[in-house]
Amino acid sequence: MGSIGGSREETKKLKLYSNWRSSCSWRVRIALNLKGLKYEYETVDLAKKEHLTPGFLKLNPLGFVPVLVDNGVIVSDSFAILMYLEEKYHQHPLLPRDLQTRAINYQAASIVSSSIQPLQNVPLVKYVEENITPNGKLPWAQYHIRKGFAALEKLLKDYAGKYATGDEVFLADLFLAPQIYGAIKRFNVDMTEFPLLSKLNEAYAELPAFQDAMPEKQPDARADVIY
């Protein structure tokens, strides 16, 4: 349950429907930690298809995690949740003031959320393996991850500092950290091809807000399942 800081009022009204293996949920957990917002962690067991129950589908008709409930306000989709949190809770801004740097953050987040993560998601890679080519899910996922990572290396090369767009953590970092971790742990991507992203990954390992959001530290994490 919960994360870092926050008032008693926030504790009562923030609830995150999450799954430990969901990189989309992980992005939101990082944001909540950075902003010091306590929240109730509501496990959605994807293996048991709890995301397809009538109750959950009322929260998100697509049946995806995460979903944030804030004092009766229901927000689904990690990007929408992050923007909602940014506009309502102003501590630790997720977006820089400089418009060009802000645009780079949006672009990096979009590459991950639209050109990488959906193409390596469990239902799609399972479909590839079952209907297109046996044993094809790993090469499929690796291809799309490498393509996206190559684009990110080019996009961020003139903006990166300690983190993706300078020496402060912003939106892009929230999308990159789970994606890089998953690429390494789940899809065996060789990160020597991507030195900038590898450097960022090392920096994220030093941040408590990121480390406390790690999959294995969540209440529904399973020791018998590899991330």
Task: Walk me through what this model shows.
The protein has ten helices and four strands, in the order H-E-H-E-H-E-E-H-H-H-H-H-H-H. Helix 5 (99-116) packs parallel to helix 8 (171-185). The chain has a four-stranded mixed β-sheet. It has helices at 8-13, 23-34, 54-59, 78-88, 99-116, 122-132, 137-156, 171-185, 195-204, 208-211; strands at 14-18, 40-43, 67-70, 73-76. It is of the alpha+beta class and 227 residues long. The two termini are 20 Å apart.
Q: What's the count of strands? A: 4
H/E series, N to C? HEHEHEEHHHHHHH
Enumerate the spans where pLDDT stays under 50 for 5 or more consecutive residues: 1-11
Distance between the termini: 20 Å
Task: Please give the radius of gyration in angstroms.
Answer: 17 Å
Which percent range describes the beta-strand content? 5-15%
Q: Tell me about the biggest sheet?
A: 4 strands, mixed
Output the number of helix runs.
Answer: 10
- What is the overall silhouette? globular
Fraction in helix: 40-55%
Secondary-structure content class: alpha+beta
Average of the residue pLDDT scores: 90
Main features:
227 residues; alpha+beta; four-stranded mixed beta sheet; 10 helices; 4 strands; 50% helix; disordered N terminus
Task: Give the gist of this structure.
By secondary structure, this protein is an alpha+beta fold. It has 10 helices and 4 strands. Helix content is 50%, strand content 7%.
